[in-house]
Amino acid sequence: MLRWTGLLVPPEMLGSHVASTVSSVTGRTSDLHTRCAIAFLGHFGVEWDIRELEDAEAVILSRWISAYQEHRELISTGRVVADGDFDPDAPALRGVVATDGSEAIYTIVTPPLSADSRRRVRLPGLLAEARYRVESARPGSLGPWWLSPHWLDETAGLDSDADAASYSGSLLREAGLDLLTLHPDRALVLRLVRVDD
Q1: What's the predicted TM-score (pTM) here?
Q2: From CA 79, how far away is CA 40, in angstroms rounded?
Q3: How far apart, in whole angstroms, are the C-alpha atoms of residue 16 and residue 42?
Q4: Is the separation of the CB atoms in 197 and 129 below 8 Å?
Q5: What does the buried/exposed string (b/e) look like for 131-142 if buried means 16 or more CB atoms within 10 Å of the residue's CB?
Q6: What would be the CATH architecture of the domain defined by 79-195?
Q7: What SS3 state is found at 58?
Q8: Where are the domains of the chain?
Q9: CA 174, 179, 125, 134 torsion: positive or negative?
Q10: How many CB atoms lie within 10 A of CB 105?
């Protein structure tokens, strides 16, 4: 639902909530990382009886809420971008890019069916002449560890001070990044921050 509605409705008006593990609408089961990552580019509500949380889940949810609060301004004021919406076998990408091109946040969701393939995910909206550091929040597995893309292994955690890989805006916009789509319904959040040499 967010995939299509997000093309027309600003993120802060999207009713995107972190709900219980099993969806009451679809019956599908999703891990907490996926539910938080998908709700991240919306108003990030919690529609779940949090008394049911285990201690580890409470820590994870707290970190996501803090990250959302830190990036809420970008999410509500950035230019909305998307890619992959018309190919059901491709990862779906939604994002927001700061109006000055200084940073961006993207959510990438692998397709619901396991497509044993390798795809390129383009990151629209970046400045071609700029360089961007890539940070990520990712699930425990997007696919077998030995097939993890090199660029993803080089990323730091979201809002980390650690050195992370950087790439030109033109490369990220035009060629994109290699991404496995082996495991279905996985979500990955990327934050790109402009770095000037």
Answers
A1: 0.83
A2: 15
A3: 5
A4: no
A5: bbbbbbbbbeeb
A6: Sandwich (2.60)
A7: helix
A8: 2-77, 79-195
A9: negative
A10: 25
- Categorize the per-residue pLDDT at 9 as very low, low, confident or very high, splitting at 50, 70 and 90: confident
Tokens representing 31 are 């891990």
Whether the Cβ atoms of residue 182 and residue 116 lie closer than 8 Å to each other: yes
- String of DSSP letters for 105-135: EEEEE--SS---SEEEE--TT--TT-EEEEE
* Token couple for 74: 């970008």
Query: Helices (DSSP H) in 40-84: which residue ranges?
Result: 55-77
CA distance 58 to 63: 9
Distance CA 182, CA 82 (A): 21
Say if strands 79-83 and 156-157 run parallel, antiparallel, or are unpaired: unpaired
What mean pLDDT do residues 125-145 have? Answer: 86
Beta bridge partners of 93: 83, 108
Residue 153: Cβ-neighbour burial (10 angstroms; 0-12, 13-18, 19+) = exposed
> Over the stretch 52-76, which tens digit does the pLDDT of each residue have?
889 999 999 999 999 999 999 999 9
> Which pLDDT score, from 0 to 100, does residue 21 have?
77
Q: Which pair of structure tokens corresponds to residue 135?
A: 């940070």
Instruction: Please enumerate in sequence order all residues whose Cβ is within 8 A of that of 154, keeping only pairs 6 or more positions apart, or say none.
Output: 134, 164, 165
Band the pLDDT of 168: cuts 50, 70, 90: very high
Residues 6+ apart with CB under 8 A from 85: 3, 4, 7, 92
